[in-house]
Amino acid sequence: MRQTLSSLVLISLFSLCFSLLPSGASAQNYRFSSVAIEGNQRIEAGTILTYAGIARGQSISAAELNDAYQRILASGLFEEVAINPRGSTLEIRVKEYPTISKINFEGNKRIKDEDLVGMVESAPRQVFNPAKAERDAANIIDAYAQTGRSAARVTPRVIRRSDNRVDLVFEIFEGRKIEVQRISIVGNRAYSDRRLRRVLQSKQTGIFRALVNRDTFVEDRIEFDKQVLADFYAARGYVDFRVTGVNAELARERDTYFVTFNVQEGQQFRFGQITTVSEMTGVEAEDYQAALKVRPGVIYSPSIVENSIARMERLGIRQGHDFLRVEPRITRNDRDLTLDVEFVILRGPRVFVERIDIEGNTTTLDRVIRRQFDTVEGDPFNPRAIREAAERIRALDFFANAEVDAREGSRPDQVVVDVDVEEKSTGTLSFGASYSTSGGLGVQVGFSERNFLGRGQRLTASIAAAADNINYNIDFVEPAFLGRDVAFGLSFSLLETDDDFALYDTVTGTFRPSLTFPVSENGRLSLSYSAAYKDMDNYTGASAILAAESTVGGLYSSGIGYNYTYDTRRTGLNPNAGVLLSFGQDFYGLGGDSEYIKSSVRAIAQTKVLNEEVTLRATLEGGALHFYGSQNSRAVDRYAGQIMRGFEPNGIGPVQSGEQLGGNFYASLKLDAEFPLGLPDEYGISAGAFYDMGAIWDVDASAGGAAVSSNGFKPRHVVGVALIWQSPFGPLRFNFSHALQKETFDKEQQFDLTIQSEF
């Protein structure tokens, strides 16, 4: 009872004390009749008052006063801000940020000052902002990271000057490039690490890393490699493939990275049933089913599906069906590891292209970009066609970046296509030296421009000189002649030889305009006119045939020709195989001194086996000359080059008095195999083996003199091995050969060094 009474007394006393306190628990309010602003030099007082948001005579709380302080500080114009109520006067004191007098960069060697200036937001005669300077430092660090210098550090420093000015200095520590010491793939079974590393943009540290910089660690490049791996597997039927993670670990010395890609391949799928149904009135599914090239049992690839859709939609356009769309519906059969594809033809939304806006092309003309679109203003909008146009724009290789997006136009049924590009350099001027086992030392000067005058035209000019010859070449190509898918070409070449693998000198000049256009999905036809001048003189040998031919002097020839090319690599439906077929003829006799037909044929087939580790290639070539009337070919007309490995140029064929004459016919078959040697990838060395068979034959012997030997079809056989080196100067091929069958006067060549040709 006594304890309860004491508690009540204490509670009463506390209540009495709180009741006697002033009513200040509520927010304090201020009212100012005047505002005094001090410390400002460049910024007007009215501007500061606007940021504060306080009007004279307005009643404000302490919280609103704090908000005004925050607004003035957030303007980024003042280094210090203070707000002090002084009775009916509000005093605002500020200290302005200084003005930047100049910006300097110190410690940079790898990136030039003029390039760094474009990376920073801060600029002279602007107000210095510490937050902006920190962002500038981060941008510079990112630029160094893109070059592999992820250890770079940038510190912005301020040097005070008079009149509230400062010099902004970015102190840069570039650091060393951090290399990728090792790239590993975990979880792959179908393809080896070596095969997968070849598709990655990132590379392991090479022996010539000073010349090749793809072995530096760049985070964005790793992200790109993840997509490249996904595309590689998807094109080969692994629809469940995914990269589960990428680990990039610094070595203990912190100078190299070890990069590991963790992947799940899944199972390889093939096409199952391929069907077509139509949900569009007036469209027969059978016609579109017949247009498909894909067949059941083929390894599944998204590109094959996309190509099939494009083929069907083009058929719909030809039949006059606007807004026809093809939707693939895929049914998965895990038991059979097949994917059934049903192509559904339906009517798409009635949306039109209002316009195509192009920005960023400071050099390239608008029409060069517009002609990559099959769609023009007013056409039905087709998202797939726009995506294909975007890929064609990027494939031009005129732009560092190209983005193509579609947005709603002025009405819901219209779309505006925005194209935003960033130009890059497309011209090169080269000076070089070369060496070959056949021509010796040589020098070359060349100019190349892929986007001449911004018109998308290609212009190349070069002069190459060696010990025994000099070659001049000029080539020009307009890829869209008269706005059509027709390439107009002009080619001029002049070759002068001085006792080059022969005991006579030659002069050969050719002028050749041409038109090339598609005739099918994989076929192209070229029509051309040729005007040529050929001369041979200063013969010093004993062959009666060559002596007679050298006295003829220079002859002119004029004619027309065609060349048909069939190339399955254009569609890229099979990433592991391809076929290239070419056949052409030139008919000379339209004026000039010579009348003859020159025919040529070439066929190449390539495939990759053993999980794409081994490349097999077969090449079949042939040519024929047929002169009319009493005319005969001369050495400058006949085939005498290096048609096969194992022999010198002009090293096989008909012979008189120990000298090669060349022939009116030639044929060769080359079989190649290329495979890895098991050496570390960074060496860039692989091996090859080859078997060549070929012959040059048939020459007119009417000039008399000694008998002509080896004038019939007598094939030579050669086997050999090769060492292929992906050097910083290009892919070099060292061939070591041995002739299994040859003729007495053949000039064998057991070693030669060439540039590795890519199929």
Structure, explained:
By secondary structure, this protein is of the alpha+beta class. Helices cover 18% and strands 44% of the residues. The protein is built from 12 helices and 35 strands. Strands 18-19-20-21-22-23-24-25-26-27-28-31-32-33-34-35 form a 16-stranded antiparallel β-sheet, with no helix packed on it. Strands 2-5-4 form a 3-stranded mixed β-sheet, covered by helices on one side. It has a 3-stranded mixed β-sheet with strand order 6-8-7, covered by helices on one side. The radius of gyration is 38 Å and the shape is elongated. It starts with a helix and ends with a strand. Mean pLDDT is 87; it is low at 1-26.
Write the layout of secondary structure elements.
Blueprint: H1 2-20, E1 29-31, E2 34-38, H2 45-52, E3 59-61, H3 62-74, E4 78-86, E5 89-96, E6 99-106, H4 113-117, H5 130-146, E7 153-161, E8 165-173, E9 179-186, H6 193-199, H7 219-234, E10 242-250, E11 256-264, E12 270-278, H8 285-290, H9 302-318, E13 324-333, E14 338-347, E15 352-359, H10 366-370, H11 383-395, E16 399-408, E17 414-423, E18 427-436, E19 440-452, E20 457-466, E21 469-478, E22 487-498, E23 505-518, E24 523-537, H12 544-550, E25 555-567, E26 577-592, E27 596-609, E28 614-627, E29 655-656, E30 659-660, E31 665-676, E32 685-697, E33 716-727, E34 730-741, E35 751-755
